[in-house]
Design a protein that fits this description.
- By secondary structure, the chain is of the alpha/beta class.
- Helices cover 38% and strands 13% of the residues.
- A hairpin with a 6-residue loop joins β9 and β10.
- α12 packs antiparallel against α13.
Length: 437
């Protein structure tokens, strides 16, 4: 019978807290592995949608949200295939073929805005994380390479003096010189031109375009003032195509430019014009800035519809753990499979014989055992052959029912089933005990 064991040496609350913390940490680890780069901070001072530096675009994202626009940040291929307006902010080191493939696959999916890089910056040591120092707008002159696989363009940096010829003796640049150059650079504008471009926003001083839309055969009346009123009468127009807007001057959209109220209002107008006919929100692409994530099974498990199955498994695990902690009474010690003593040994051996189905072998063995003990009780010499022992035991008087040793021994050896073996064994044992001792 089971007996009560000792009380648990560990407090239930302590064990429950340890299990809960471990389970939560395990789920957090799975989520972190699945999320990958999505958990990395994007506040690295670069020019993208989550950067708060002067060249970042977090101010544009916040401004759009305050105007009621749904804003999200695309870190994977699924976010870039939505119908929402996609704002791409490629770095100067981005792959032109990858950028062109991204834009072309969205031709009939949704509108796209490409904001070209402009400023060369250096991290500002000792200040807040993500802050940078403006150096020069020379990156703008390298942007035609980014668009080389998409559309041929020419870039001009307006308002910047031409580079002077290098002096014979190089003098060390002072802080005042750098400040003077930066003051001039802050007034610079970037213009763009090309055969397949149509002007959306022109520079007031030169009349050259600062924002353009690619002339790809689509119908964009909100962006092109010369677009026909009715596209049905123009067979050259490819309806269903979405626009690709190129913002050549990043200061029209970045945090530095949106510090000016007029520039901020103008940025929202550009987004609205490009957004017409698109989805319901705006997506800032982060894949072109090294902040993308790859698809894996763990990341899919934490998104609908599979997140429901994961939540169900987690609740089931919590339920099983709760059942384990809420047991009825103390733990009970298990019974021993085999008891101690001769009686338990005999019972265990008998059970083994029954389980193996060897009952029919017990009759002859018990008859031999009784013969040996009966001969010993009569004082017969050891080593006497079995036949002679049987002859002498046969001379012993029969029992009260008239059965002698030969009859009882033969019945014992002939028994095959359990009742017959038991009956013959009792009779043979009674004869021995009564006649031999």
């Amino acid at each position: 019978m089971a007996t009560g064991g000792n009380s648990n040496p560990f407090a239930r609350g302590t064990v429950l807290l340890m299990v809960a913390i471990g389970f939560a940490a395990f789920l957090a680890l799975l989520y972190a592995i699945g999320a990958g780069g999505a958990l990395r901070s994007g506040n690295n001072g670069a020019a993208h949608g989550v950067s708060v530096s002067t060249i970042g675009y977090s101010a544009l994202a916040q401004l759009l949200e305050k105007t009621g626009t749904k804003v999200s940040f695309g870190r994977g291929p699924d976010a870039l295939q939505q119908q929402d307006l996609l704002i791409v902010t490629p770095e100067i080191s981005a792959d032109p073929q990858e950028l062109a493939a991204l834009v072309r696959q969205r031709a009939f999916t949704g509108p796209t805005i490409i904001i070209l890089p402009k400023w060369q910056v250096t991290p500002e040591e000792g200040l807040k994380t993500g802050w940078v120092r403006l150096e020069s707008p020379v990156l703008a002159e390298q942007t035609p390479r980014l668009l080389s696989q998409l559309v041929p363009v020419r870039i001009r940096l307006e308002g910047m003096p031409s580079a002077p010829r290098a002096p014979a003796v190089v003098q060390r640049e002072t802080a005042a010189d750098r400040a003077a150059k930066l003051k001039v650079a802050l007034r610079s504008r970037v213009t763009i031109s090309g055969a397949k471009l149509k002007t959306v926003l022109a520079d007031g001083a030169t009349g050259r375009a600062r924002v353009v839309v690619i002339d790809d055969g689509g119908w964009y009346p909100a962006l092109d003032a010369n677009a026909p009123e009715n596209p049905d009468g123009t067979p050259d127009i490819e309806q269903g195509r979405y626009p690709v807007v190129i913002v050549a001057d990043a200061d029209l959209m970045n945090n530095k430019g949106l510090a000016n109220r007029d520039t901020a209002r103008q940025a929202v107008q550009i987004v609205d014009a490009a957004w017409s006919g698109g989805g319901e929100g705006v997506v800032f692409d982060l894949t072109q800035n090294g902040l993308g994530t790859s698809e894996n099974l763990l990341s899919v498990a934490f998104r609908p519809p599979f997140v429901g199955a994961v939540a169900s498994l987690a609740l089931a695990a919590i339920g099983f753990a709760w059942m384990a902690f809420c047991r009825f009474g103390p733990a009970l010690a298990e019974e021993r499979p085999f008891g101690f003593g001769k009686t338990m040994l005999v019972k265990g051996s008998a059970g083994l014989v029954r389980r193996l189905g060897r009952d029919h072998l017990l009759g002859p063995a018990y008859a031999d055992l009784v013969r040996e003990r009966a001969g010993r009780s009569l004082g017969l010499p050891q080593g006497l052959p079995r036949e002679q022992i049987d002859e002498r035991l046969a001379k012993v008087s029969p029992d009260a029912e008239g059965r002698n040793y030969e009859t009882l021994s033969a019945d014992m050896r002939a028994a095959r089933d359990r009742p017959g073996i038991l009956s013959a064994a009792r009779a043979l044992y009674a004869w021995k005990k009564e006649r031999v001792g």
